[in-house]
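User: Can you write out an input/output pair for a complex, sequences first and structure second?

Assistant: Here is one pair. Inputs:
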Amino acid sequence: MLSNEKLNELKTFSQKVRKKIVQILGLAGSGHPGGSLSSADIIVALYSGIMKYDPLKPRMAERDRFVLSKGHACPALYVVLAFKGFFPVEDLDTLRKLGSHLQGHPDMKSTPGIDMSAGSLGQGLSAACGIALAGKIDDKEYFTYCIIGDGESQEGQVWEAAMFAAHNKLNNLIVFLDFNKLQIEGKVKDIIGPLNFQDKWQSFGWHVQVINGHSYEHIFQAVSAAKQEKEKPSIIISNTIKGKGVSFMEGNLSFHGATPTEEEIQKAIEEINGI
Amino acid sequence: MKENTVNKGTRDAYGEILVELGKDNKNIVVLDADLGSSTRAKKFGDSYPERFFNVGIAEQNMMGIAAGLACTGKTVFASTFAIFATGRPWEQIRNSICFSKLNVKIVATHGGITVGEDGGSHQSVEDISLMRSLPNMNIIIPCDYIETKKAIREIIKIKEPYYVRLGRAKYPIITSDDTPFEFGKGIVFKEGNDVSLISTGTMIDFSLKAAEELAKNNISAEVIHLHTIKPIDEQLILATSVKTGAIVTIEEHSIIGGLGSAVSESVCANHPVPVERIGIQDKFGRSGTPSELIKAYNLDVPDICAAARKVINKKGS
């Protein structure tokens, strides 16, 4: 159980993260607010007590790894990495600009703290499997975390990786499904249903949990349960809200890939302050 | 150089060298997509089962896993047939491997039409082209069993992506243990003045035979083998262009995007001379025996000789 103090700390940090996400996307003039905000709490939790890392030694061998397979949500990751000390917070203002180390999608060769380049949907889980597999081969104790999207799960490669991870007993792999129910062209269920993710992952031999992806208690509990699993890889199906935290972005398709105006940024910040 | 009497598979060399290198180099991990017996990658698995993974018939996932393993510092080999190694997972190779310049060696067997009876679906004639367009990708096509071993030994020293193309059939052994192998440097097998025959991979045998035929008609052919397609040996191509003023390229691959294109690009940029390209003429393969197909697709010795005469006639015109 998380203490009230820890919960308050996480809540305050997540507000700071959400405000910064909205601000830097406004500055960039392009990018993906919806998915950044839906996955923000998971990323905040991972870097606030779940994962083992050292911002001064981003390539430390014993660190836990993180692959953001739905790479378009990288503003959330960049903001968290900056606030955690991987690089200066001012760098965030250069997001998506020529010469910036903060590329439109994660680039491990550019940004300190990025463990794997990603962005082309469907590919990150395979890479996460490879990282986890290396841990098994070498008998290392690190965990590999990965966030995939619900729309992304339409890619066949996700299920190739799902089979591989279960077959090779990658219990050191913990995946979050950012289940925000929307993709660029509409509702996921209207595009390719049914959304029986729980059945699908169970039938693929995974340890499956379903949580509220905006509840820190849920996220921390689910991870500690996943770590107890002796054989199976884990998926934590996280019910989330696209655009979470900014009412006019929540569940609003137009904020999948469109950024807020200055006026909207102000409105969003006021609203986040009042959460 | 040895007599062309012994035929051995380049893929056999691959399996053997993996086992040899894997003994001391514990960092090597080998992946295969359910064709390990054919690619010979399984030989590594027989010796080191804890570092060999048959990922199943899932090439896209194989490239992603290779990328992930490489992120942790592993030297990763990923093998399957050339068509499935480059076509199906091209975008995974691009975005998961080459984009981040990861240490993954894609070693594909069954390149070209000499795959034979399996027919066009399994004969890769576009793979060099597909791999050549990728930034950060290096490409090697060894000419025989001995050179394959040298190539594999060499590329594990460089922590970058590589595509190595091997064949299915057994091919004459052209080189010896003493033949130098330097990544990025072509090999002149025979000096000549009238025309340059530049081949890659196992086509060297045809190229050497064509040079002998041409010599009977007093045509002096320079025979060059480019085992490295990327980066291409611009210096050697320039030198031979200046020397002979006429080039024939010979490859078991489409004339679009492969050796012929790479040499032509270099020639055009540095010292324009006429170039004739022997290769698959923008077609798919068909079923047949390897030697029937070599004839049917005009890759044979007489075809090379005809191209040499044609290109010599174009000199200075």
